[in-house]
Structures are given as C-alpha cells and as structure tokens.
Design brief:
Number of helices: 5
Helix content: 10-25%
Distance between the termini: 24 Å
Radius of gyration: 18 Å
Low-confidence stretches: none
Largest sheet: 14 strands, mixed
Order of helices and strands: HEEHEHEEEEEEEEHEEEH
Structural class: alpha+beta
Length: 204
Amino acid sequence: MDEKVIRSLVKWPNVPHCFGWLALDRRGQWRMRDEYAQENRLPGNIIQHRALNEFISRNYACDSLGRYFFQNGPQRVFITLDATPWIARISPSDTGMKLLTQCDTAMHPQAALSDETGNIYIAGHLQQTLYEMADEDQFAQKDCLTVALLLDHDLGLFTDLAKIHEEACSFRGSWNWNGQALPLEAIHSKELSERFHYIKNPVD
C-alpha cells in the first residue's frame, strides 16, 4: 500500500466509507459505477486511465470480514466483485509458466476448481494486504490462500494442461503446472465465497 495513503489515514481517520461505486469484472477490469449504473444494475464504465488502474491495484486490500476495497487516500471504497477477488492469467516465462492476477501479483496455485457452467478457478497462495480490524486497525502484508477466476482467454491453454476423469454425476482430474500434477475438483459457484471467505457485494 502506498505510503501517502497510510499517512492520509492517520491525518483523516474518520472519512466515511463508499459502497457500490467500484467493481471488479470477470475480465479483471476495474469499473466505475455511478448512481444510474447502480440503480439499473449495469456493469459501469471500464476505467481506462493507466495510472488510476495501477493506483487501485497497489492499494487493493481485504478486511477481516472478507470485504475487498480500494483505499483511496483516507476513504475506503468497497468493491463489488462480479466473480472472485482475483482474476488470473497464465503467463509464459523463462522458467515456465506464471499465474498473475489483475494487480500483476504472482499467485502460487495449489488446485483448480470447475463450476457448473465450466468456469475454472485457481486456488492458491499470494501476498495480499489485510486490514486487521481487531488489531488496532493495522494493515499487514500476509501470504493467504485465496481463489482467482481464470480469465476465459486462457481456458484453452488450461484444457491442454488438464486430465479429466468423468464419474457418475461428477468428475475428478488433475492439471500439469510446471511439471507438477495439481488436483482439479468440481465446485458449485455459490460455494466459492464461503469457502474462500469473501463478500461479493459489500453493503453499508
């Protein structure tokens, strides 16, 4: 988190929180949702400004209730999640493949999950900023187990890495991640937020 953001919290500690105005869509894009978009349940406008996108990504955090937010100076802007708190892409590198989130942070996968409509989610560890409400309102960087929706552009690549064994009313399988066989399991999309402790639509 930016140092100037931390200083602003000390200077203005009681700025009201903001809800509903910022969203993370299924493609990893930040969207601004004005009153019209909120009232009509529209996705909102994609934020195109590169510096603003980078600022949001650097100051993206989660509180102990599982609510994700952007700390905009002294104001906390809670984020509506279309899918999961993280959207991941598979990226080739000199040492193999990397998994990067919409914030350009590295995720270290442990398993993959497939839901009832064929979406693929990656469960794994990454470093994220946590706001500890019960610990004197402190921010801390911690290694956390979380979940990311795999961007649909990478579904073909994931399929090439996966081996699926269909069973009665279910399936199991594995996928090859840099030479390591990781599990592939079924899940219902409604189970994700409880299993990985996040709130898709924070409200005041």
